Amino acid sequence: MVYMERQPLLGNRPTEYDTLRRASIPQVPNLPRGQSLSWTSSYILVVSRVIGSGIFATPGSIAVLLGFTASNCIIFSKYTLFALCDDPTDRQQISLAVGLLTFITIIHGVFPKTGIWIQNLLGWTKIAVVTAMSVTGLWVILFRHNYSGVSQDNLTAFSYDRIWEGSKWSWSLLSTSLFKVLYSYAGLNNVNNVLGEVQDPVRTLKTVAPVAMLTASALYLVANISYFLVIPLDQIKESGELVGALLFQRVLGPHVGRVIFPIAIAISAAGNVMVVTFALEQARVNQEIARQGFLPWPRILSSSAPFGAPLGGLLVHYVPSILVIALPPQGDVYNFILDVEGYPGQLFALASTVGLIILRRREPLRPRPFRAWLPAVYLRILICLALLTAPFVPPADRKGDVHFFYATYAIVGMGVVVFGVAYWYVWTVLLPQMGGYKLDEKDDVLNDGTRITKLVRVYGSDDAGVAPAHVVD
């Protein structure tokens, strides 16, 4: 709700696609133009983003704790190798995950039209897989007495008294569990990214996210119930990110359940990587940051030439994602990625939420197309504060959801934020003071028509009163 109230208040500030269109940048084929997104299209956009790899991967992690696109690359590799190999190695997992990200970067950076066609196909596959999982769950729930895979022990374990046995309730573990839950619902604010393309945006903002959340919650609830009815609790805790594969294997047998459906889940994860990498977030955001002059080599990273695609933005996303996939121990890499993504995000969520309250007090009479419920806003602040302070409250056994130091995710996450602040300070404050110049903005147009902002060094005035400038590349 905070993001929904904030976005319309940005006024003339463009959304990602608005910026792309207003700057007269060459359009990638099939990208939306004008207000072409209906309510139904917006709903599918949100639901397709929400239903990612979380429902296939995080229940096992959450069960243990309570008893970058890199994350979806990891899920793709694990489910593919589960279907094809009996005992995959860490090198195989890393190679397959890196191979997927490399393939998607090449497809979106060199063959954008083909990439959009593939991601649309994979998006429908993803929805079909989750629907199949929900139907399987409903079938198990309705006909469990006639299904041999549901034992009496499973039914007994799936009771309020026994389901919490062995749970751990430390503040630190609860916070990392909540990161997994938040990841499973990532994308509820997805329509904000393309608000300029939405028909009747006020009505859409008010209704799409709640309806999409109810849809995803219903699918997740049915799937989780089927997990507990079919899979023994101990196996759920030990399954890691493969709990979805265990469900299909026990229900549909060793051939269809172990091979076909895990491959389908892997394809679903690949589709999520394609959507997040190019169409919705990473590549376009990175390209727009370069166009505003905040990254080095802006002429290279800002251009859509020669393929009409944000290849520079894709490469900026590619390098750190590869490092995140390859460096952590493979047994902990998925949990670590989700925690690293989630922790610094709470800092920005807290800033946005507090800023929203400040705006309400400064401009109480300003029209707001969407108004967030104030108790929910304060609840969001409390949640952010709880998650940000959790690493400072160590678990009783000094163990988290990884096998190394429990607060590593907070150190890495805040390290990235501190590095960004230090980069800004050195580049825009310290170096200009030491060099005796100021940074000023200069508009420029690339050969392909792309408009960018370049930062120039102004070293004072000459005799004619004109400030000589040096372009910062």
What does this structure look like?
Helix content is 63%, strand content 4%. The protein has helices at residues 2-6, 16-22, 39-50, 54-66, 70-84, 90-110, 112-142, 152-157, 171-184, 201-230, 233-238, 243-252, 256-280, 282-291, 298-302, 311-326, 333-362, 374-389, 408-435; strands at 438-445, 451-458, 469-471. The longest helix has 31 residues, at 112-142. 40% of the residues are buried. InterPro entries: AA/rel_permease1 (IPR002293), AminoAcid_Transporter (IPR050598). It is a multi-pass membrane protein. This is Methionine permease. It comes from Aspergillus terreus.
Features:
473 residues, mainly alpha, Amino acid/polyamine transporter I, 3-stranded antiparallel β-sheet, 19 helices, 3 strands, Methionine permease
Concise description?
By secondary structure, the chain is mainly alpha-helical. The chain is built from 19 helices and three strands. It has helices at 2-6, 16-22, 39-50, 54-66, 70-84, 90-110, 112-142, 152-157, 171-184, 201-230, 233-238, 243-252, 256-280, 282-291, 298-302, 311-326, 333-362, 374-389, 408-435, and strands at 438-445, 451-458, 469-471.
Structural class by secondary-structure content: mainly alpha
CATH architecture: Up-down Bundle
**Oligomeric state, counting identical vs distinct chains:** single chain
Distance between the termini: 40 Å
Q: Total number of helical segments? A: 19
Give the strand order, joined by hyphens, for the main sheet: 1-2-3
Categorize the overall geometry. globular
Annotated CATH homologous superfamily: Amino acid/polyamine transporter I
Overall strand count? 3
Query: How many separate domains?
Result: 1
Query: Per DSSP, what share of the residues sits in E-state strands of 2 or more residues?
Result: under 5%
What would the CATH topology be? Amino acid/polyamine transporter I
Proportion of helical residues: 55-70%
CATH secondary-structure class: Mainly Alpha
Let me know the average pLDDT.
Answer: 72
One letter per element, helices H and strands E, the order comes to HHHHHHHHHHHHHHHHHHHEEE
What is the C-alpha radius of gyration, as a whole number of Å? 24 Å
Keywords: Membrane, Transmembrane, Transmembrane helix
GO molecular function: L-amino acid transmembrane transporter activity
Main location: membrane
Organism: Aspergillus terreus
